[in-house]
Amino acid sequence: MLSRASSDLLSTGQNEKEAPVTPVQPEVPELSQSKTEHMKTPEEELQPENPPAETSAPKDHLGSLKIRPVSEPSLSPAMKNELEECETWIDRFRKLENALYLCDLSNTGVLEKERARRLIHNYNLIYNLSLSPRKIDQALRRFRSGENMLLEPALRYLKEL
């Protein structure tokens, strides 16, 4: 311990000639004092105080695995992009659904056919939903009730395309 303290003293830049001749307790830097407060066991001395980066790597690897729930399969980057595109398409389609349902003021589930056609066409263009005009017309014809369109089945039909 004394040799360690004296080596710490020498490492601070003082050489042996500058050390006092009288037997005075040498000044030990604060860092080494904090080390001497707790006597280390031989096992603790063998372990470095700052573990190498290699030991923290598995923790990071485990952290990245926690991002994906176990129930979801791991996906390739191409499949992830396709999934993200699909999710954003559904989000954009929901905006169309919400607009149509908001126009149904009496909450009957039906909307005037021409008004529904204009809304679907405009949202299709604005949000790039890629709904063909022919499929939109088919939905309007199949799910009509007189001059009105049944919203739920028509939207389900358009969503399945």
UniProtKB/TrEMBL annotation:
Residues 1-79 are annotated as: Disordered. Residues 1-14 have a biased composition (Polar residues). Residues 87-161 form the DUF5580 domain. This is Uncharacterized protein C1orf87. It comes from Carlito syrichta. It holds the Pfam family DUF5580_C. It comes from the Eukaryota.
